[in-house]
Amino acid sequence: MRELEGITARSLPIVARAPGKCILFGEHAVVHGGPELLLAIDLYTQVSIRAAASLSLNGDKDPRAHHPYLGPALDRFGPVPPDLQIRSVSRIPRAAGLGSSAAFVSALAAALASSGGGISRAALAAESFAIERAAQGVGSPGDTSCVVAGGLLSLNVPDGEALWEVSDGARNWPVARLPDPGWAWLVAYSGIPRRTGDAVRAVSERLAAADGPTLLERFRSVALEGLDALRAEDPERVGRLLDQNQTLLAEVGVSHPRLEALLEAVRPAVYGAKLTGAGAGGSIVALPRPGKALEALRRLTRVGAAAYSVRVAPSGVELVEPGPPA
Ligand code: PMV
After folding, report:
1. Which ligand 1 atom is nearest residue 203's CA?
2. Rounded to the nearest 5°, which phi and psi values hold at 41?
């Protein structure tokens, strides 16, 4: 396995940032062991921590009560007592399926772990997943591994450059890096917030039906073909497979009329498009045709979406504005 550069030790104050992510193929199926492909995107969340008389998050003096990820992160890494002033700023829309929670968790965990002596990237991926799982109850380590590693990643795919394996005690998810073709993508938020846990539970019930194994097999084959098409740098084929993955997601019940409206609006300007993340609201990802990215953005904006042109974020979570060495 390749050893990525870890998060080094620093003294407070510490600032860390992490990218958002979008899922190109295989969401939901990944929870049940299926292959998934994810892309870290260049919208970032930045978290800063500094010593203070008492705990606060963006001015909130009782943040454990209001922020589900904070308690588990402080319990794993925080100083005791956790007298920290924590601030976060983000360009990633929240509850939109674009990795805002994973980016917050991993940037906060990186900053806390840095003040405690540093951490390897593999351990940070495992810890960030444990924090997200403690708050969310269900799900895979795809989002957290993606924002920790950066780049184009796979879960549950045997080839690729192995990075690490994350476990929840019941299942192991191998994580690998894939060569990124360097394309520009579009993501667009429908404005309908959703809860990942609720969608994951609903799809899990759907997949427990008699045709569940057949559906999972179809998710698997679309994701593996998608991997093949990305490796071949064939955007037309990737686009067709994005559309096929969308059909499957609609079949398991996580599309939404607003998502369908966005997909319909953008179709003439893209090779293909699908919802990304848990669905039931949230966002879409689309691969624009050459010279059509601006038209695609306009089409999405016209139907009320918050649309972004994004590129891969190659490096994952990192410390910024380094303080004095510890
Ligand atoms: O909507 P998001 O960004 O939380 O993505 C969820 C992806 C799922 O496969 C539906 C769940 C998971 O944890 O993998």
Report:
1. 10
2. -115, 155
